[in-house]
Amino acid sequence: RGSRHHGLRVIIPPRTCAAPTRITCRLVKPQKLTTPPPLVEGEGLASRIISLGPSSMQFLGPVIVEIPHFSSLARGDRELVILRSENGSVWKEHRNRYGDEVLETILNGMDEELESQEELEKKRIRRIISTDFPLYFAVVSRIQQESDLIGPEGGRLSSKLVPRVEAIFPETAVTKRVRLGLQAQPIPDELLTRQLGNQA
User: Fold this and answer.
1) What is the value of pTM for the model shown?
2) ZU5 domain: from which residue to which, for each copy (predicted)?
């Protein structure tokens, strides 16, 4: 287990490294990168970018990284996503393949306290479970997004935040199965009335 900054932890369970390995972890400012994470309107970094080493390291089992963030999720309209970059120029979303229910199995008898997802949310810490280290991890705050795999047969995406918003994809709208996302941001009625009067 390694911990340097408050809340930042890297946990390497027993028998996940094939040989003795020096693990490094650095906080990086986005302006120091040639290609920082691509952010669209309404998105922002929720912590410093994390550089882990050795990059491209493949572990024999899942390891845990916990990153503190400063994003507020209290209103319920935002979510955190983890972006990863293998080479510093291309970023993609990291998806945890393991849920909290397998944490004890992952720890493999290691005497380490892991808090529940609810406790981590209160402390503003994001947990990443991975079997390899990319060059960088980034925690990004964005408006809640519904996403699903849509294929040539078509499909539908509906917003949970604004139930009247949905996107319908007719048959053959896409030629192969792709993951599509839908974001909708609720606007208070009084703000609309103030801006547009009775035209809204």
Assistant:
1) 0.81
2) 1-142
